[in-house]
Amino acid sequence: MLRYCNTDIVFQEYPDEVTLAINISGCPCHCPGCHSPFLWADKGDELSIDSLTSLIEEAGEPITCIGFMGGDADPKTVDNLAFYVKQHYPTLKTGWYTGRTAISPDIHKEYFDYIKVGPYLRHLGALNSPKTNQRMLRRRPDNSFEDITSRFWNK
């Protein structure tokens, strides 16, 4: 079962989007220097179709994207929730932040408009560092993905 600790409306995690970011707990990655170690514990409310629907309805019109921030302990559920969003909220984009080095085979990439992949490695920095190992991928109209990581770099 997937759980989430909190949500927020954010503007930087996915370029050009107003995102309802859902912070998913139970992260198995435990990256040294993690900016959200409170998400390591498996705590919070269940992230189900019903709770996701409530979160989307409460956020209302300003949002353009649903961001699943974590969920590496249960990528199949993240995938199912993204599919639900695509079916029931076709104008919303979906994004997923995974701390793994590769996208899980349980993920159907066509359900996602954005996927951030890669663990946080302190010596390489986060997405805003040109040295980062993390990559932000955006789905193109032909369903291939392009690397847009450089959009985050401090110039």
Give the SSE map.
Layout: E1 3-10, E2 19-24, E3 45-46, H1 49-59, E4 65-69, H2 75-88, E5 93-98, E6 114-117, E7 135-139, E8 145-147
Parallel strand pairs: 2-4, 4-5, 5-6
Antiparallel strand pairs: 1-2, 1-3, 6-7, 7-8
Shape: globular
Share of helix among residues? 10-25%
- How many whole angstroms does the radius of gyration measure? 15 Å
- Write out the strand line-up for the largest beta sheet, numbering strands in chain order: 3-1-2-4-5-6-7-8
What fraction of residues sit in β-strands? 25-35%
**Span of the ends, CA to CA:** 41 Å
The number of helical elements comes to 2
* Sheet of most strands: 8 strands, mixed
Uncertain residue segments = none
Tally of DSSP β-strands: 8
| SSE arrangement, N to C | EEEHEHEEEE
Category from helices, strands and their pairing: alpha/beta
Indicate the mean pLDDT. Answer: 95
List the keywords:
single chain, alpha/beta, eight-stranded mixed beta sheet, 2 helices, globular
Descriptive notes:
It is a single chain. Strands 3-1-2-4-5-6-7-8 form an 8-stranded mixed sheet, covered by helices on one side. The chain is globular and about 40 Å long. Helices cover 16% and strands 25% of the residues. The protein is an alpha/beta fold and 155 residues long. The termini are far apart.
